[in-house]
From TrEMBL, chain A:
Identification of the protein by name: Glutaredoxin-related protein 5, mitochondrial
Keywords, sorted A to Z: 2Fe-2S, Iron, Iron-sulfur, Metal-binding, Redox-active center
Organism name: Drosophila mauritiana (Fruit fly)
Gene3D superfamilies membership: Glutaredoxin (3.40.30.10)
GO cellular component, one term: mitochondrial matrix
TrEMBL record, chain B:
Secretion signal, residue range per the UniProt entry: none
Domain of life: Eukaryota
Family: Belongs to the BolA/IbaG family.
Compositionally skewed regions (Basic and acidic residues) per UniProt: 127-140
Higher taxonomy: Eukaryota, Metazoa, Ecdysozoa, Arthropoda, Hexapoda
Protein name as it appears in the record: BolA-like protein DDB_G0274169
Gene: LOC117142837
Species per Swiss-Prot/TrEMBL record: Drosophila mauritiana (Fruit fly)
Amino acid sequence: MNRICQNLRHPRYRILATTAPESLARFLAADAATGAAVDKATMDKLVRTNKVVVFMKGNPQAPRCGFSNAVVQIMRMHGVQYDAHDVLQNESLRQGVKDYTDWPTIPQVFIDGEFVGGCDILLQMHQSGDLIEELKKVGIVSELLKAEEAKQQDDKAK
Amino acid sequence: MLNFTLRRLTGVSIRNLNQLTPTISSLGQILPRATMSQEAGQYPPIESAMRKALNTELKPVYLEVINESPQHNVPKRSESHFRVFVVSEKFNDLTLIKRHRLVNDTVKNALKAAGFEFMHALSIEAKTPKQWEPEQEPEKSPPCLGGHGK
């Protein structure tokens, strides 16, 4: 845990700007750690750094996997601010998150510190409207919801 | 079906059964799927282990197991990326994540018993019979973005 905190303060630890509308994700490039998988306590902290946390392959600007990319695109559509971790940069994180959730694949999405699912589940939640509900529960208003409401306002005004 | 009766009668494990399948495939007329096999007269090992496990555990109304490895940056004839489309009564009271965990665990246990590592990627579509229309095709997986080349 201390190591992660030290890494956070190290200049090597990059956080991409969140000002541009395209890059709503904070990309946290941790050191490529060696040794055993990241332990549970560290994982507990990592999944709570933001309301929405995603473990993926690659980063939101350049995903290295089609399924990770699907998650990134869905998040972009909803205008969600989230933290992204690239497991390809860190083998112990990659194994650590799999052990933490007892889920064998990446990407993995956490909302409010709770594991929600991977690409398939997120896609189905997006299609069924459940994702908008889940985001609302943690206080994130989805862009799609805003667009929907704006449209309804327009229709009423006419 | 014949596999299961054989297995019960002889009490063989899944691993031994994989070795037995060449003899079963010689009964090509009785088991149609044996005639669709590729090399060495049997389904690819991981895929067949998955099908067996999913059929036993979930007793699905409909099951599709698709090897999507050719769509990805992996060697030929890999069995690394799969898509599973299952329709089963067992999903009736389960949330999405519980259904997916059930499928994941079934596949994981089957592969462990057969001595394989879990695959690199598994896409799951788990529907209840009520949610399922027979004409429905499984979703298409997004295109591969290269992975890490390993």
